[in-house]
Task: inverse folding
C-alpha cells in the first residue's frame, strides 16, 4: 500500500488540477438537461388539446380513397358525465388508484420514489407509481411497454395534460376509457356488465367493487373470482373511509352489502364490413403491436386498402346461399375469399365465413390453413419449369409412374402417354405435374414456393407438394398474393390491409412499408398468364368464363381423408385480371363422413368465383393482358395482335417524331410568333376602341 501512496497522490493532484469533479458534474448536468429537453420535446409534439374529443370518438376505418368505411364503436364512446354521477363513484377510483390526485400537478414524487425503489430491489420494472393523469397519458397516447423511457414520456405528457384540462375533465376521460374486465370499457359499460344498472344508480359498495377491478381487471372479474373481487372491494372501502370520503356508518353498511351480479351486456362492438374490419384489427395487433383495448378505446383513424364497392359486392355474393353447396349434418359449407390489387398487394375486399359472425372470430380469408390441391401447380411446378427453359409446347410424360414410394394418379384414372405442358396445366393432370417437378428438381419447386410467399414446412419437402400436399396449408390471402405475381410483371408486393394508423391527437402511430419480391421474370409471368387463360377458356375453370373479359386462373381440390365416398375435402379457385386477383376456398371446418363437399372435383367453387368476378368488374375498368391465351396463339390471333401492336408502335413513333419537329419549329420561330400575336391583339384592341368611340357619338 505504501508503494501505491505516491501514485494515488499523483492522481489526486492531477484530478484537482484539472478540476475533473466540476467537469463530471457539469457533464452530468448537461445529460440531465438534454434528457429533460428531449422528453419535453416529445411531449410538445402530442396535441393533447384534442385528446378529450379523440377519446370520445370511435376508431374509424377508412377505405383506399380516404372515405369512411366503418366505425368501430363500443358504447363507451358515449361515456358518462362526472357531474351526473354520485360523488362516491369517482372518489372510489381516486381513493385506490391515486389518493393525492387533487393535489399533484400530474405526477406524484412520493409515488414515483416508492415505485423506483421497489423496481430497483426487484431488478426490473414491476410497479409504475403512476397517477391517474399518467395512466390516462399511457392509455391514450403511449405503448403499453414497461420501460423507463416510456415512463419518462408518460410523466411529461401528464404534466402537459394537467395544464390543458381540469381535474374533473381528466378524471372523466379516464373513467370513460379505462378497462374494467369482462369486455367492458369505461365505468358506464362496467356498471351495465356487472350490475345491469345505470352508473347513476350504483351503491357505494358497487362503486368500490368497480374501482377495485382496475388493479387487475381479468383476474378480479367477479364472474370468475367473486371472493377476490369482494376482498378487493373491502380494501377500497377502507381507503375511502381513511381519506374521509365516506363515514364510518357508510363504510359498515357498504361492507355488509351482498353484491348481486347481473350481466346487462356491457360493451358491444358495432362495425360495418365485419370480416374486413376484424382482419384490420388483427393486422394492427399482430403487425403493429397495438392491443385490442387500445384500438377500441383510443379513437384511432385506420386507413386501409378497402374498396367499398368490391367489399359490398363480395358480401352480396356470400348472401346468396343458393350459390353454395347445401350443408350436411346441420352445418354450413364454409368459405373464405380475398380480392387484391396485384400492383400494390392491397386487400380490396375479403369475407371470412358464412352464417353467424363472432367479433374477431376465426377468419377463413386470412387465418385458414388448408391444402391448396392443384391450385398450387403454377407456383410449385410450372413457373420453375418455364424458368428452366421448358415451353408451353414441351412434352411431358403421362403414364403410370412410381416415384420412390409415391404413385400419383390423374383424376380421370386415364393416361395420354405424352401431353404438352399447357394441356397438362389446362386439364389439371396430376402425373405430368409430378413428373415435371421430379425432372427439374424438387428444390427448384420448393424455392419457387418460398418466392411466391407460400410457407413450406419440413414435412412438405417431397414430390406430393406438386399436387398441394402440405402438412399445414395456405389461406386465400396467401394464394391471392402469390398469384398477383403473374399480373404484376413477376413481382410480388407484400399483402396488407392497413396503410396508416393515426392516433387521437393526430400522431402517425404506424405506416405500411412497401416490400417487393422479384419472384420471376416478366417473360415467365406472361407465359404463365397465357396458359392460365386457357384454364378459364377451355379447361377446368371454364365455368368461370365471362364473355369479353380476360381472366386467368387455376382450380384445385383435395381428396377426402377416407374412402368409399365420392366427394372432396377442399375446393379452390384462384384467378386474376390485370387489375384484380381473387382467391376463394370452400369446405367444412371439420371434414368427416357427415360433412364433405359432394362434388369429386372443383366444380362447386368455380361458379361462385365467376359470380364474385362478375360483381367486381362492374366497378373496375376493363383491362387486357399484354398476351393472349395459348388457344388464341394457336388460332393465329396472336400474330394479328402482334401485327396490330407493331403498327401502333410505328404510328406512335411517327407521331412522336412529328411532335418533336413541330416543337422545334415553334421554338425556333417563337419571337416572330410572339410579335405577331401582340400585333394582332393590338389591332383588335384598336378596332374595339374605334367602335366604342362611334357608339358614344351616336348617343350623346
Result:
Amino acid at each position: 500500500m505504501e508503494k501505491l501512496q505516491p501514485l494515488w497522490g499523483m492522481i489526486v493532484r492531477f484530478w484537482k488540477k484539472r478540476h475533473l469533479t466540476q467537469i463530471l458534474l457539469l457533464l452530468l448536468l448537461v445529460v440531465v438537461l438534454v434528457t429533460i429537453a428531449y422528453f419535453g420535446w416529445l411531449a410538445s409534439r402530442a396535441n393533447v388539446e384534442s385528446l378529450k374529443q379523440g377519446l370520445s370518438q370511435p376508431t374509424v376505418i377508412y377505405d383506399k380513397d380516404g372515405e369512411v368505411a366503418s366505425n368501430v364503436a363500443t358504447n363507451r364512446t358515449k361515456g358518462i358525465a362526472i357531474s351526473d354521477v354520485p360523488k362516491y363513484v369517482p372518489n372510489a377510483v381516486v381513493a385506490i388508484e391515486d389518493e393525492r390526485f387533487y393535489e399533484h400537478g400530474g405526477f406524484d414524487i412520493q409515488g414515483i420514489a416508492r415505485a423506483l425503489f421497489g423496481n430497483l430491489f426487484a431488478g426490473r420494472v414491476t410497479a409504475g407509481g403512476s397517477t391517474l393523469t399518467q395512466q390516462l397519458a399511457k392509455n391514450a397516447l403511449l405503448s403499453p411497454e414497461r420501460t423507463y423511457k416510456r415512463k419518462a414520456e408518460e410523466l411529461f405528457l401528464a404534466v402537459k395534460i394537467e395544464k390543458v384540462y381540469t381535474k374533473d375533465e381528466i378524471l372523466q376521460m379516464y373513467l370513460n376509457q379505462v378497462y374494467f374486465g369482462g369486455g367492458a370499457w369505461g365505468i358506464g359499460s362496467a356498471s351495465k356488465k356487472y350490475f345491469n344498472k345505470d352508473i347513476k344508480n350504483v351503491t357505494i359498495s358497487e362503486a368500490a367493487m368497480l374501482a377495485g377491478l382496475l388493479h387487475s381487471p381479468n383476474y378480479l372479474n367477479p364472474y370468475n373470482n367473486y371472493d377476490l373481487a369482494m376482498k378487493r372491494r373491502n380494501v377500497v372501502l377502507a381507503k375511502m373511509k381513511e381519506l374521509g370520503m365516506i363515514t364510518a356508518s357508510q363504510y359498515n353498511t357498504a361492507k355488509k352489502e351482498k353484491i348481486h351480479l347481473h350481466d346487462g351486456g356491457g360493451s358491444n362492438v358495432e362495425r360495418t364490413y365485419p370480416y374486413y374490419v376484424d382482419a384490420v384489427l388483427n393486422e394492427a395487433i399482430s403487425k403493429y403491436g397495438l392491443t385490442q383495448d387500445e384500438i377500441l378505446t383510443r379513437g384511432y383513424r385506420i386507413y386501409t386498402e378497402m374498396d367499398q364497392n368490391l367489399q359490398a359486392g363480395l358480401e352480396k355474393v356470400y348472401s346468396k346461399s343458393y350459390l353454395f353447396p347445401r350443408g350436411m349434418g346441420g352445418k354450413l359449407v364454409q368459405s373464405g375469399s380475398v380480392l387484391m390489387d396485384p400492383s400494390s398487394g392491397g386487400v380490396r375486399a375479403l369475407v371470412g365465413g358464412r352464417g353467424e359472425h363472432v367479433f374477431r372470430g376465426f377468419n377463413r380469408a386470412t387465418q385458414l390453413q388448408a391444402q391448396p390441391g392443384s391450385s398450387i401447380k403454377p407456383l410449385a411446378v410450372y413457373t420453375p419449369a418455364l424458368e428452366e427453359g421448358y415451353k408451353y409446347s414441351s412434352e411431358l410424360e403421362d403414364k403410370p409412374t412410381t416415384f420412390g414410394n409415391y404413385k400419383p394418379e390423374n383424376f380421370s384414372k386415364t393416361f395420354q402417354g405424352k401431353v404438352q405442358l399447357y394441356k397438362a396445366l389446362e386439364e389439371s393432370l396430376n402425373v405430368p405435374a409430378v413428373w415435371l417437378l421430379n425432372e427439374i428438381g424438387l428444390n427448384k419447386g420448393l424455392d419457387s414456393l418460398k418466392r411466391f410467399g407460400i410457407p413450406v414446412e419440413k414435412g412438405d419437402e417431397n414430390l406430393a407438394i406438386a399436387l398441394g400436399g402440405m402438412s399445414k396449408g395456405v389461406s386465400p390471402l396467401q394464394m391471392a398474393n402469390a398469384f398477383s405475381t403473374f399480373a404484376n410483371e413477376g413481382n410480388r408486393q407484400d399483402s396488407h390491409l392497413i396503410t396508416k394508423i393515426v392516433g387521437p391527437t393526430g400522431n402517425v402511430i404506424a405506416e405500411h412499408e412497401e416490400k417487393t419480391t422479384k419472384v420471376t421474370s416478366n417473360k415467365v409471368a406472361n407465359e404463365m398468364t397465357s396458359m392460365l387463360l386457357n384454364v378459364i377458356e377451355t379447361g377446368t375453370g371454364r365455368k368461370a368464363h365471362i364473355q369479353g373479359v380476360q381472366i386467368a386462373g387455376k382450380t384445385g381440390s383435395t381428396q377426402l381423408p377416407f374412402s368409399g365416398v365420392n366427394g372432396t375435402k377442399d375446393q379452390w379457385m384462384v384467378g386474376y385480371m390485370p387489375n384484380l386477383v381473387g382467391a376463394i376456398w370452400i369446405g367444412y371446418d371439420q371434414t368427416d363422413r357427415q360433412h364433405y363437399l359432394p362434388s369429386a372435383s372443383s366444380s362447386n367453387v368455380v361458379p361462385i368465383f365467376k359470380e364474385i368476378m362478375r360483381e367486381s368488374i362492374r366497378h373496375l375498368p376493363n383491362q387486357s393482358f399484354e398476351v393472349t391465351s395459348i388457344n388464341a396463339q394457336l388460332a393465329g390471333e396472336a400474330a394479328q395482335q402482334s401485327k396490330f401492336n407493331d403498327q401502333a408502335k410505328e404510328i406512335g413513333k411517327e407521331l412522336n417524331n412529328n411532335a418533336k419537329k413541330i416543337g422545334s419549329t415553334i421554338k425556333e420561330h417563337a419571337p416572330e410568333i410572339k410579335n405577331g400575336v401582340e400585333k394582332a391583339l393590338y389591332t383588335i384592341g384598336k378596332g374595339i376602341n374605334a367602335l366604342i368611340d362611334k357608339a358614344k357619338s351616336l348617343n350623346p
Q: What stands out?
A: Residues 640-697 form one domain. The chain has four domains: 4-45, 74-256, 347-631, 640-697. DSSP finds 25 helices and 15 strands in the chain. The two ends are 124 Å apart (CA to CA).
